[in-house]
Specification:
Helix content: 25-40%
CATH class: Alpha Beta
Shape: globular
Number of strands: 9
CATH architecture: 3-Layer(aba) Sandwich
Strand order of the largest sheet: 4-5-6-7-8-3-9
Oligomer: single chain
Number of helices: 7
Length: 205
């Protein structure tokens, strides 16, 4: 971690992209904290695209078409959903500087969403940053059962179809491990990142 940015200074877009390219990402202590700090974990979470696992119950939900899947339709709705307080998560690290910075990245085509809709309502979603052939997952949420899981499956389908090479989850959780997420040492992650940033960038949108 490095020293936090000064309150109210925001996160410059070029600095944010350089940080991702070097294996660093920003976080905040809470939604009300005006500062941002930088994180470079010793162990990094990734989902190997060729080892993604869909549990049987989720596969059934996907086959039945329970949700309409959309991409980049409602970035504001997704980041608001990811910021919501829920019984299992009473606080969020998405503060004002982070919200503003990723909104700018979305406008520039470096931030994308996967959204699950039902009857015109946003039921769940996720967002992340693209750079080179890497998708850096940031956050996800569900308002209905399996909504974010369906989004994750749709994300992996799109990344695989569009020549992405690395899906970064920052950290692993027991939930993500069910889908094939693994921990890799920082040095190995940075080698994977360097390779995935070479050559022609993949296109998400």
């Amino acid at each position: 971690m490095t020293r936090p940015l000064a309150p109210g200074s925001g996160i410059p877009t070029d600095l944010l992209l350089r940080a991702y390219a070097s294996g660093v990402f920003p976080m905040a202590e809470s939604a009300d904290d005006p500062e941002v700090f930088w994180v470079r974990p010793e162990t990094r979470g990734i989902i190997p695209l060729d080892a993604f696992h869909i549990p049987k119950s989720l596969a059934k939900t996907i086959r039945h078409g329970a949700f309409e899947i959309a991409f980049d339709r409602d970035f504001t709705g997704v980041i608001e959903g990811c910021s919501e307080k829920r019984p299992e998560r009473r606080s969020t690290w998405i503060n004002k500087p982070i919200r503003e910075a990723y909104t700018r990245l979305f406008e520039l085509g470096h931030c994308h969403t996967v959204e699950a809709w039902r009857e015109g309502q946003l039921a769940g979603g996720l967002y992340g940053v693209t750079l080179g052939r890497v998708f850096f997952g940031e956050s996800m949420f569900s308002r209905e059962r399996d909504a974010s899981k369906v989004c994750l499956a749709a994300l992996v389908d799109r990344l695989s179809a569009r020549s992405f090479q690395l899906l970064d989850t920052q950290f692993t959780t027991e939930h993500l491990k069910r889908f094939g997420a693994i921990d890799v040492p920082r040095r190995k992650y940075e080698r994977l990142l360097e390779e995935a940033l070479k050559g022609e960038p993949a296109t998400f949108g």
